[in-house]
């Protein structure tokens, strides 16, 4: 069962870093095209690979009906779904983006980001924007992101993968589907779950929603061109 927590009390503790912090420069951005263009790209790549919707769905562990909605521009893909489709089609995930970004490798040492607007790369897809809050580094498995969901964003197909996830609603409200059960989370509410459990998060409200999203293993860093480290691993076969 997922762990869902209502708004906690706020305690702030500041500690001095044990070594000199690194204020790394902000990274470039990757942007998915609009839903119609993204859907056309998925369809072209699928046909080039000689796959039916059902075959691609089986390879990507996504339903054919959901992929059909994506191809027709009526649904968008979360990062996990995008990675699965790219793997199933044997293409780089950046094939779905409007432009590639050439990014420097992360620096060693602790990473200090000043202010909530500070980020190290942005991935924009129809209905959602992911902002990477740390460039990561050798031995660091946790990937923190600030996720913004547009109002009345289309539901995504529940996905499962290796790892662990924690999300905290910073503003607005979101709908979470976990193993077929639906939960509505408001500001200050949180969700903690094993990523092997089928799950989806979307925004049915009329206002934007922002979430602090922590996950392992990293999903955004590979898309942004950050080199993988020995501890980084995404198991495409785990259901």
Q: How would you sum up this structure, described in words?
A:
With 239 residues, the chain is of the alpha+beta class. It has 2 domains: 34-96, lambda repressor-like DNA-binding domains (434 Repressor (Amino-terminal Domain), Orthogonal Bundle), CATH 1.10.260; 112-223, Jelly Rolls. It is built from 5 helices and 11 strands. The strands form 2 sheets. It has an 8-stranded mixed β-sheet with strand order 1-9-6-11-5-4-3-2. Strand 3 and strand 4 form a beta hairpin. Helix 2 packs across helix 4. The longest helix is centred in the N-terminal third of the chain and has 14 residues, at 35-48. Residues 8-29, 99-104 and 228-239 have low confidence and may be disordered.
Offer a quick outline of the entry.
With 239 residues, this protein is α+β, with helices and mostly antiparallel strands. The chain contains five helices and eleven strands, in the order ββααααβββββββββα.
Q: Regarding quaternary structure, how should these chains be classified? A: single chain
What amount of the residues lies in strands?
A: 15-25%
CATH class of the largest domain: Mainly Beta
Report, as a whole number of angstroms, the end-to-end distance. 16 Å
Q: How many strands?
A: 11
The amount of helix comes to 10-25%
Q: What spatial form do the alpha-carbon principal axes imply?
A: globular
CATH-derived topology of the largest domain: Jelly Rolls
Class per helix and strand makeup: alpha+beta
Radius of gyration: 18 Å
Task: Please summarize the sheet with the most strands.
Answer: 8 strands, mixed
Low-confidence stretches: 8-29, 99-104, 228-239
Order of helices and strands: EEHHHHEEEEEEEEEH
The number of helical segments is 5
